[in-house]
Each structure stands twice: as structure tokens, then as C-alpha cells.
């Protein structure tokens, strides 16, 4: 976590750059509607990139408990908002996580916080998916982790190709999900119900 003084300095500096950008696109940053926009935009940017100042491994390890079960645990449709690193435009959607416990389980609310700490950075969807998968495999003993992510990208919807209805799905897995296709099928069936 940043201290408030550092935060204010950072926000003032980013706001200065936003003021310059407003001029460059042909706006007048001194007009009434825009006068506070650079500060607001700077605060928003610091907030939506707060994942850089979080440690997902630490978040995960705060909520790992003993657990005897060995069947797939699934948490479906964890909502996230991120920014694509190619255009600095939002992409957002849902992440579904599954894992096979091996003596341990993780607090379900922590999964959402882990997704968020990776999402609140400049990202690509493929890496976000892979990072959630490998973080879980690192944070606790499991027999396998699987992560599926589907998202809409404003850089595709608002510019260039303008494919309004497209969505992108990415998948990553490890452990028994990698070696046993039947387990991947079971996971896919589980997340449909
Ligand atoms: Zn993009």
C-alpha cells in the first residue's frame, strides 16, 4: 500500500500528463467541464492499476485451510475489469476457477481478490488467465488447477475492426487437468450447471 503523501504526488504528476493529452487531442483543459478531469482521471488510473501494489501470493496464503476432500472445487463467474496493455482500454468479463484439493482448500472470497490483483494492471487476457492458474498452483498443494476466462475488449469494439459482439475465451490448466482430459470434461460439465 502506498502512503497518502506519495499517492497525492503521483496523482498530481499523472494529472499533469492528462492535461497535456487533453490539449493534444484538441481540447481546452481550462474549460469548466474539464477543469477537474485530469485529477479525476489520474485517481481512476491509480485505482484501476492498484494490482501493481498488491501481492497475490500473500493474499492467497492468508486463507488456506486444512481440507480432506479430493473432488473438483469450482468457483464460477468471478467478475473482473482490466486494461489491455496494447491500447490502455478496458477489457472485462468473468473468470471461472477449478482446483483439485490435496489436503488444503482456499477461502472462496480470496479467489476473487487474486483475480482482481492480476486484473488491476495493464494486461492481456491470456496472461491474466495463466497468472491466476500458476498463482493458485504455487500458493497451495493441489492435484491440478484450471482457469477459464471470457472477456469483451473495448479496443476491439470501439476502434479498428469494430466487431461489436465478439468475446474472447482463454483457458489454462496444470496438474491432473493437463494429463487427464476426462477431468477437463468434468470441469466443463460442472460450470454449465
Ligand atoms: Zn487492446
From the structure above, extract its key features.
27% strand; GTP Cyclohydrolase I, domain 2; elongated; alpha+beta; binds zinc ion; GTP Cyclohydrolase I, Chain A, domain 1; 193 residues; 2 domains
Describe the overall structure.
The protein folds into 2 domains: 4-48, GTP Cyclohydrolase I, Chain A, domain 1, CATH 1.10.286; 56-192, GTP Cyclohydrolase I, domain 2. Helices cover 45% and strands 27% of the residues. It contains 8 helices and 7 strands, in the order H-H-H-E-E-E-E-H-E-H-E-H-E-H-H. A hairpin with a 5-residue loop joins strand 2 and strand 3 (90-101). Helix 1 crosses helix 2 (37-48) and helix 4 crosses helix 5. The model has no long low-confidence stretch (mean pLDDT 94). The structure holds zinc ion.
Short structural description:
This protein has helices at 4-24, 37-48, 56-61, 108-119, 125-139, 154-157, 176-179, 181-192, and strands spanning 64-66, 73-84, 90-101, 104-106, 122-123, 142-153, 168-175. It has 193 residues and is of the alpha+beta class. α1 (4-24) crosses α2 and α4 packs across α5.
The CATH topology of the largest domain turns out to be GTP Cyclohydrolase I, domain 2
Number of domains: 2
CATH superfamily of the largest domain: GTP cyclohydrolase I, C-terminal domain/NADPH-dependent 7-cyano-7-deazaguanine reductase, N-terminal domain
What is the C-alpha radius of gyration, as a whole number of Å?
A: 20 Å
Backbone structural class: alpha+beta
Bound molecules: zinc ion
Mean pLDDT: 94
Choose one word for the global shape. elongated
How large is the count of helical segments?
8
Strand content: 25-35%
Number of strands: 7
**Low-confidence runs:** none
Strand adjacency order, main sheet: 5-2-3-6-7
Q: Largest sheet, described in full? A: 5 strands, mixed
- Distance between the ends: 39 Å
Helix content: 40-55%
**CATH-level-2 architecture of the largest domain:** 2-Layer Sandwich
